[in-house]
Design a protein that fits this description.
single chain; alpha+beta; disordered C terminus; 7 strands; PH-domain like; 182 residues; 3-stranded antiparallel sheet
């Protein structure tokens, strides 16, 4: 990546960004996470196409596949909105998970990079290898953030590891707990 492209990437702002906070990268789930949307598009269209094939003499039945397609597009658009607006924003200070719930609901979860204890990833067998998706688990003292169906999990894992190591170096190592300090 050239210096100009790197500067442009870092100049992108997002809602909730703090002063002096630098955007490292943004990622979202793999397109395979939208498979229910694809099924929702195909199944109503396929089912509504059966009656015109059986009763070919009734021309009004040929309107059914159009209705099935419209219903399928509505279902698909719902799943597309959920997929597209669910993003993971990684800055030099934190990870911000923005999850879209329906057309109007949004959940936001943040983790400070210096609080992350461990990051691991898993590629689930043949389909994960072929389509290039997996699961990333980010462990903290409070609990785990599990991100399913991440596109190219090994690349995202490496970027997250680099961001966490840079944040720990910036803070000056892991912060000691009361048990370790005492």
């Amino acid at each position: 990546m050239s210096d100009t492209a790197a500067k442009e990437t870092r100049q992108v702002a997002f809602e909730g960004q703090r002063e002096g906070e630098e955007l490292l990268f943004i990622f979202r789930r793999h397109i395979i996470a939208m498979r229910k949307g694809f099924y929702g598009l195909l199944i109503p269209f396929a089912l509504s196409s059966i009656p015109p094939l059986i009763w070919q003499d009734n021309l009004q039945l040929f309107l059914l596949p159009i209705g099935g397609l419209v219903i399928g597009l509505i279902i698909f658009s719902y799943h597309f909105v959920l997929w597209y607006y669910t993003v993971y924003i990684v800055t030099n200070e934190r990870i911000r998970q923005v999850t879209q719930n329906g057309f109007f609901g949004t959940d936001v979860v943040e983790l400070r990079l210096s609080k992350i204890q461990n990051i691991s990833y898993n590629v689930p067998g043949f389909s994960g290898e072929v389509f290039g998706f997996g699961t990333i688990v980010i462990q903290t003292f409070v609990g785990d953030l599990v991100i399913h169906k991440v596109e190219h999990p090994e690349k995202t894992y490496n970027k997250l590891q680099d961001a966490v190591m840079n944040a720990i170096e910036k803070v000056g190592g892991y912060e000691k707990t009361e048990v370790e300090a005492g």
